[in-house]
Amino acid sequence: MRRLSGTGVSSGIAIGPALVVENSAAPVFRLALAPDASERETERLSNAVEASRLQLQAIKERLLRDLGPHAYIFDAQLLMLDDPLLVQRAMTLVKEKGVNAEWALHSITEELHEFFRGFKDAYLRERSADIDDVVGRILLNLGDSAEAPSLAHLPDRFVLVAGDLTPSQAAELDWERVLGIVTDAGSPTYHTAILARSLGIPGVVGLNDATSLIAPGSNLVVDGSSGGVIVDPGHEELEAYRAAQERERLHERRLQETRGLPAETKDGVKIVLMANAEFAEEATTALRYGAEGIGLFRSEYLLGRSREWPSEKQQLDLYRRLIEQMRPYPVTIRVWDLGSGEMDGTHAGPRVNPALGERALRLMRRFPEPFRTQLRALLRAAASGPLRIMFPFASGPSDLRIVRELIDDVCRDLRRDGIEFRADAPIGLTLEVPSAAATVDLLAREVDFFSVGTNDLIQYLLAVDRADPRVAGFYEPLHPAVLRTIQGIVRVAREQQIPISVCGEMAGNPFQALVLIGLGVRELSMSATAIPRVKAAIRAVDACLLARLAESCLVLPTASEIEARIRSELAVAVPEASLEETQPSPRT
User: Fold this and answer.
1) Any idea of the CA torsion for 507, 194, 202, 536, to the nearest 10 degrees?
2) What are the pLDDT digits (tens) for 267-297?
3) Has 503 been annotated as catalytic?
4) CA angle 333-336-340, nearest 5°?
5) N or C, where is the chain less crowded by C-beta within 10 Å?
């Protein structure tokens, strides 16, 4: 028996035999063409691109039929086939350098990888996998293969073990026969992880060497909640996991029955549960799990589909579609939360500390145009339904003045152009910088709502880089400084009658969500799949009990003592299963 540890990206327990997939890239050679051969070579490349287009379109149509909204993944790849930075540059290289199409594609791909590595944002960096997938398909078609390798017809039900799965491999998979996913590479924002979560298939990624340590046919236990993988477990351990798997199935079935029930405490306090979203198509998933709106839509994903700023029309169409899908519930869209490298296109390497650098609202002074275009689209979309506009990374009132000046300027332009828009669309701030939390009374005079981004707020308050495993143990959501800061924000928001929500990972953890409710929070936004479990916990308790409990915790000196107090008080009222940590939202 061997135990492996990675990152759980889709909760649940899978048990079954391993199907090990090994991807090996074919070598690419540089060949010098005869002077008159360039035209034939570009035609060969063009034919391979068209064959790839037909294959991707077929995959997209199948995915649309079988998995619904997640077909958007292949919109990006289809767009890449028309992107002048990829195919057209390869064509030019063939003509100007007299090299074969394979080498031209390889050279351009290396340049694009370097470009993507310059992004500070992990999600955007990971989109380079789309390039590999598209180029790999073109190379395959250059080799005169009629079909790309496919996992569409699995002979039995397996736990899939792979170094990585490209988006097209993931889309072609016979998911009905996939029990679980285990990969060497990956993160919660990989397409494979997104698909696994949407389908409820347990997944663990980032194991580094699983493909070399797991033999084909090995019996595996995959725990997508803890990130653990057990190879060939003993009889007693296997039976224990089978029992846990059955308990989880029964519990999930009961949780799904809460979809039509209100998120309301036993003494009648209503809590609004909303979903965090990365893509407009996730609205369907949010509604399926009982979300009453989108509390955080991260607009940055639009930059992952190309290397240019999306146009006003592209954004407007997407925002309107999101509003229509969620109607009559509200949608909260966060404006660009990017660093200066993404804004100026330099990507000049890592800053001394990007988390403390020039980011989001701080960039408005130097780069107003991308924000201006986005605000035009948002204010126009707000005329179609309940849209809220949220600005991240405010450090105090001076940032808000920049925001208001830009909004006023955009409104003047829209009036001059005779374009319909909503001038009074609700404007809010993400409170994640301690200086903003300390001046929340001043900020409240100028905004319509607040959202507490607990992930960043905690790391800034406790001086803990949440991406650094060396200090991960110091990242404590229940630290008294965190709870006291949130309490102070809630108190000011109530006094000034400003709606407030929490959109960080604390909101999606039932145990911590109850603490937030005790502190006075009445709106929570989380990963859609976390909503049933949080709702079940809410329906099991009295809000007055949570308020007394939160008050008593504020005088305790350590996070461990606070957690022990809460577990002791809630042991009778709330089943332990309802307080287990759910799959967190990967980026807030």
Assistant:
1) 30
2) 999 999 999 987 776 788 888 889 999 999 9
3) yes
4) 170
5) N
Residue 161 host element (H or E) = strand 158-162
In the block, tokens 């039932």 appear at 510
Q: Which of 70, 106, 191, 479 is catalytic?
A: 191
**CA gap 299, 322 in Å, rounded:** 12
Question: Quick check: helix, strand or coil at residue 33?
Answer: coil
Element (H, E) at 233: none
CA distance 327 to 307: 31
Q: What residues contact residue 11 under an 8 Å CB cut-off, 6+ apart?
A: 202, 224, 225, 529, 582, 583
Q: Which of 70, 106, 479, 503 is catalytic?
A: 503
**CA dihedral sign of residues 388, 393, 396, 401:** negative
Strands across the sheet containing 13-21: 2-5, 228-231, 219-223, 13-21, 158-162, 178-183, 203-205, 7-10
Task: Spell out the CATH class of 264-579.
Answer: alpha beta
pTM: 0.66
Q: Does domain 2-23+150-254 have CATH number 3.50.30.10?
A: yes
Torsion angle of C-alpha atoms 504, 509, 515, 521, degrees rounded to 10: 40
pLDDT single digits (tens) 149-178: 456 677 788 899 988 777 667 766 777 889
Q: Which CATH number fits domain 38-142: 1.10.3720.10, 1.10.274.10, 3.10.450.50, 3.10.20.740?
A: 1.10.274.10
